[in-house]
Request: fold
Amino acid sequence: MVEDKIADMLTRIRNANQLKYDTVDVLGSKVTESIARILKEEGYISDYKVNKSTSGNTITLSLKYSHGKKVRVISGLKRISKSGLRVYVNHDELPKVLNGLGIAIISTSEGIMTDRDARKKGLGGEVLAYIW
Reply:
């Protein structure tokens, strides 16, 4: 049983991306599905598919590369808020990843969104991960 599904998801993406796999399967939940949706909207993955089964849901992510599988679109992933140390920020303290080149995934009262969307809505929350 995996305790931290977000960290497991980021690790699986990082490993598959390093080996330049086309797809990677991650454990399914509402949070990981929201993160997959954000990754697709921001252009870090090409698509995702939710696979429902009796043994548990999985999400298949189609990783994205440029220049014919030579350059990775995702160059880094980092889990920020962990079970031992939660990181919360106000709307005016929202982080910018690489001066706006990357995204921070924030869990707010209105759902999981990027730092840009949270800044527009004036919301703070828990910083889940950085992706660049």
